[in-house]
Structure prediction request, 109 residues.
Amino acid sequence: MADRTAREVVVLNLFVALQECLSLATHWLADDGRSVPESYRETFLDLSRHGVIEPELASRLAAASGLRNLVAHQYGAIDPGRIYEIASMEMEDLLSFCATLARRAGAQS
Prediction:
C-alpha cells in the first residue's frame, strides 16, 4: 500500500487482466454466433445466460468490469485501499473464468 510504483503496477495488471477476460468473452460470444453486447457488464452476464459461466461468477465479473472502466477513464479517482481489496479477491474470479473457458473449449475440440 505504501509503495506507489507497486500500486500502479497492480492497477495496470488488473486493468490488463480484466480487458483480456472481456476480449475472451466477446470472442466466445461472436464465435458462438451470438451478438456482442454494447456494455462490458452485459458481456459477462450474456455468457451466463448462454450457460457458459456460472451466474455468480458472471455477476462478480460484471461488477469488476466497472473497475476496468474506472481505470480507463478516471484514473485519478482510484482508491488504493479499494484496489487492494479487489486485487485480493478478483484474481480467483479471473482465474476461474479462464479455466472455465479452457475446459469448455477443450470439450468442444
Remarks:
- The chain has four helices and no strands.
- The chain has one domain: 4-101.
- The two ends are 44 Å apart (CA to CA).
